[in-house]
């Protein structure tokens, strides 16, 4: 188990949204306020981690013919638990996310990690995989929320931050956020579904550029090292 490698893959090199490009329906739909993004991201992180641990723990006793059905049952169980907890303790978030919480059952990120990673690896490795893949997903949601809020309405932290009576975090979704510039000067299209497509496309482009640049730099370094080794052998 290589925790450092798993961390890097979850956040950067194998990010579920920007690299694997899965689970993007909810990503574009709910990233209108920081309140929604943080809530959805943490919900997916918790469900993904719990499902990873359970799938890995029972992987040796699951019949191969029905493994996908078992995965869906496990995921549905944890989604139901999280959904009921949100309804009980954070009803504003439950109402804001709406149908996208139950739809986590068919989120390709969770099913994909169960199929590609958890049924082949230990419980501890699967636990960290869930944490880091969930963090990668949450970070993308937060970036999209911050960008869309700022450009669309000149605001930061809508629903989550309240500054009317001093700075405080709120879980009732009524936080006005921090108004950086008047909302009438914002690009209102960013608050619409189309704004989600634009924002996600920009983030994917930046990530792909960074990955290609990193790969090119690594290839040049390896070639330079190989040439140096060859020159050393010739001198000897």
Verbal overview:
- Strands 1-4 form a two-stranded antiparallel sheet. Strands 2-3 form a two-stranded antiparallel sheet.
- Helix 3 (34-57) packs across helix 4 (67-89), helix 3 (34-57) runs parallel beside helix 6 and helix 7 crosses helix 8.
- The protein has helices at 3-13, 24-30, 34-57, 67-89, 91-97, 108-116, 123-153, 193-235, and strands at 155-156, 161-162, 168-169, 178-179.
- The relative contact order is 0.16.
- It has one domain.
- Helices cover 66% and strands 3% of the residues.
- The longest helix is centred in the C-terminal third of the chain and has 43 residues, at 193-235.
- It is mainly α and 236 residues long.
- A hairpin with a 5-residue loop joins strand 2 and strand 3 (168-169).
- The chain has eight helices and four strands.
- The radius of gyration is 21 Å and the shape is flat.
């Amino acid at each position: 188990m290589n925790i450092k490698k798993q961390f890097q893959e979850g956040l950067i090199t194998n990010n579920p949204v920007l690299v694997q490009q899965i689970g993007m329906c909810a990503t574009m739909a709910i990233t209108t306020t920081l309140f929604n993004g943080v809530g959805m991201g943490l919900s997916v992180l918790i469900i993904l981690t719990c499902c990873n641990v359970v799938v890995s723990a029972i992987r040796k006793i699951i019949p191969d013919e029905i493994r996908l059905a078992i995965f869906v049952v496990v995921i549905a169980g944890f989604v139901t638990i999280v959904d009921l907890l949100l309804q009980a303790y954070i009803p504003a978030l439950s109402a804001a996310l709406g149908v996208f919480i139950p739809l986590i059952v068919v989120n390709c990120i969770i099913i994909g990690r169960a199929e590609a990673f958890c049924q082949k690896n230990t419980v501890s490795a699967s636990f960290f995989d869930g944490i880091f893949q969930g963090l990668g997903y949450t970070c993308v949601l937060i970036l999209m929320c911050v960008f869309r809020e700022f450009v669309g309405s000149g605001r930061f932290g809508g629903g989550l931050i309240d500054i009317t009576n001093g700075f405080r975090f709120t879980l009732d979704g009524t936080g006005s956020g921090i108004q950086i510039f008047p909302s009438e000067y914002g690009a209102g299209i960013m608050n619409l579904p189309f704004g989600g497509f634009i924002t996600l496309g920009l983030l994917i482009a930046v990530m792909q550029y960074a990955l290609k640049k990193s790969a090119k730099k690594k290839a040049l370094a390896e070639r330079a090292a190989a040439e140096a080794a060859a020159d050393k052998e010739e001198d000897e």
